[in-house]
Amino acid sequence: MGDKFLFANSEKEDADVCIFGMPFDSTTSFKPGTRFGPNAIRDASYNLEFYSMALERNIGDIKIFDAGNIGFHTKPQDAISEISKRTNDLLKNDKFIVGLGGEHTVSYGIAHAMKEIYKDIAVIHFDAHADLRTEYDSEKFSHACVMNLIGSEIGFENIYQFGIRSGEEEELKFAEKTNFYPLHKYDTTQILEILDDLNISKRTYLTIDIDVLDPAFAPGVGTPEPGGITSNDMFKILNSLKKFDVVGFDVVEVNPMIDVSGITAMAAAKIVREGILNFI
Questions:
Q1: Which residue among 69, 101, 262, 270 is buried most deeply as judged by most CB within 10 Å?
Q2: Averaged confidence pLDDT in the chain
Q3: 52-77: b or e for each residue (b if 16 or more CB lie within 10 Å)?
Q4: What share of the chain is helix, strand, coil (3-state, %, to 5)?
Q5: In a 3-state reduction of DSSP, which class is residue 261?
Q6: pLDDT (tens digit, 9 = 90+) per residue, 203-212?
Q7: HSE on the CB side for 37, CA within 13 Å?
Q8: CB–CB of 272/5 below 8 Å?
Q9: What is the arithmetic mean of pLDDT over 221-243?
Q10: pLDDT at site 29
């Protein structure tokens, strides 16, 4: 397969969208392997059509640069630092950011850079897990703590969480500080209604942990959680988000080491395509 997402057709200087991979998974304790996620998503993208039937748009009409992957790191602080520097450079050049994970810790690097550049941002978070712990296995820079890290920096009131169906009692206390819409209370129809009524005037970053999908649609994840949304639900949700000033998004936690028939990587690749076509 290729080393670019869906035959990315532009150089950095001319691109509207810049994609980069974040192959980091050193804090994952259950089923490691998400470091291989970025390349698996790229490989799966070659099975996609350029044309989206739902959106009636062709991604080949958009200038996309695939910057490759960040370096391999074993320490989360090092990975976060490089991701922040990469994001900062792209934002200063007015690029739309698409990050491919990697464990969810990597999203903090992008959000940190966006906070530096834009000062005031919102983050919309789709996930099976709240990721609001203060530390996990004695490490605060962890996939299980990423929304706590982001909330501590941008303000918990600027976080909007959807699809959550798992969390420790202690971390869910933090959820009271966010705009929290757990899946047992808010199904897809209600999520779409909430997003339709929601007014976010500031620049917005979207982070999608692929395990927000039910394991039937995304079996290749480090921490599967039954009872999730369908892939089609996710595409409808992406379409509803285009009214916001989305300046970038990521798709994380694809684990090709346990991905049956590449189903999860394929879902992630299509989410990336549909996201770009909705927001650009």
A1: 101
A2: 94
A3: beebebebeebbbbbbebbeebeebe
A4: 40, 20, 35
A5: helix
A6: 999 999 999 9
A7: 35
A8: yes
A9: 96
A10: 57
Q: Distance between CA atoms of 219 and 217, rounded to whole angstroms? A: 6
Inter-helix orientation angle 263-279/37-45, to 10°: 70
Amino acid identity at 120: D
Structure-token pair, residue 186: 């808010």
Give the pLDDT of residue 1. Answer: 55
SS3 call for 247? strand
Domains and CATH numbers, the chain: 5-279 (3.40.800.10)
Residue 262 burial by CB count (10 A; 0-12/13-18/19+): exposed, middle or buried? middle
Where do we find the tokens 């959106």? 55
Residue 249 in tokens: 């998004």
| Token pair belonging to 270 | 């299509």
**DSSP bridge pairs for 190:** none
User: Are the beta carbons of 106 and 79 closer than 8 angstroms?
Assistant: yes
